[in-house]
Amino acid sequence: MAQLTIRNLQKNFANTKAVDNVSLEVGDGELICLLGPSGSGKSTILRMIGGFEHPTSGTILIDGEDVTHLPPERRPTGMMFQSHALWSHMNVFSNIAFGLKLRRLPRAVIEEKVQNALNLVGLKGYGERMTHQLSGGQQQRVALARSLVLEPKILLLDEPFASLDQHLRERLREEVRDIQQRLGITTLFVTHGQDEALAMADRIAVLKDGRVEQIAPADVIYRQPQTEFVSGFIGTMNFITSEVRNGRFLHDDLGLPVPINDGAATLAIRPEELVLTATRDENSAVVIRCTDFGSYHVVDLQLADGQCLKAMTGPASRWRKGDRVAVLVNSYAVFRDQACAYLSTDTQRKEAEIEHA
Fold first, then answer.
1. Is 133 in the same domain as 104?
2. Is 262 domain-assigned?
């Protein structure tokens, strides 16, 4: 196992800061997901760690050793790319063995290591096949085996499942997570898919415009986002804009207590934190759509002021277009100038329910 330390890492392309002063500590055997939209700098960070890009400034340490200026072949890292990067003129065995041959290891040692890698990724007996004879998922397994066979201290995964269909992507991410935990290998995983990050990561680093917005375990990122961007990027979030006055969020349907100064603010509520009850009040929220996802329903609402919400209800709910509903809130956050100003507690939740009763 190994520890990775990134200090004040920066990468400029012309006049653009692709990575802007990023610092990160990855512990022994930890899997951290770098999550963000396209252009947020996550792949550039990974490529700098692997030695495929040179940082403008900053330091990269592996087990305390400065590897910032070492070429890729001299770093104790293994990188798995989105495009597989397999050699089509080589069979599976030769693809996996390539790096070992460059190290001039004995043939018997190479044979043993390659076979162990194939077993590890569930491709026992596939060594003689050509890569074009494999499915997309099998090619990804070969790419993973090629990275792992070199026994790197740090495994780098750059959106490896992006080109696969959903079911295969879900299966492979479970397999990769299982392998990573069994080996105890320190791993950085780049993705723009929040589901992958939530399912795989010990911690998630959310990036925007080359900077880290928040680093925390998945449950903290989801339930206690520190910025409005993080709250909107992870999962589904309802945002309602209004004014705060005398400690209250001023809204006909969502007049909630918020102990912040007066002024404009944005209320943030997860769909599962909304509770709907039937009402005959013609000024209340109205159902405009109900979508059945099998295990739950998503109910789209329009509030009296024209703003919209999504609520998540159980599979037994039977809301119909045009139904009038009162909206109760279990928990919520309020943002001002991107910073999280307030996160509700049980006390405020009960007060909010009384307010709506």
1. yes
2. yes
